[in-house]
Amino acid sequence: MMDNNSSIFDELRQVERDVVEGERRLAEQERLIVELKRDGQDTERAEQELERLRKEQRLRNQDRQRLLSRLQP
């Protein structure tokens, strides 16, 4: 049982790192959109990318929740 929890913790640590990186990328993309709007440029592609990043982040968050629930007694 301990080995199983150990592998879950390892996976959870990686997912946590991915979640943090995902949040950083989301913030970066949101800043890009603000800059494009400020400069009067088209934001369609940047907004499509933002939506893609948001979907990926939702999946990472679901993965994190799945792992956390496996650690519950």
SSE inventory with pairings:
Layout: H1 2-38, H2 44-71
Span of the ends, CA to CA: 12 Å
Uncertain ranges = none
Write down the overall geometry.
Answer: elongated
What is the mean predicted local confidence, pLDDT? 95
Attribute tags:
73 residues, mainly alpha, 2 helices, elongated
What does this structure look like?
By secondary structure, this protein is mainly alpha-helical. It has one domain. Helix content is 89%, strand content 0%. It has helices spanning 2-38, 44-71. Helix 1 (2-38) runs antiparallel to helix 2. The longest helix has 37 residues, at 2-38. It starts with a helix and ends with a helix. The model has no long low-confidence stretch (mean pLDDT 95).
Give a short synopsis of this structure.
The chain is mostly helical and 73 residues long.
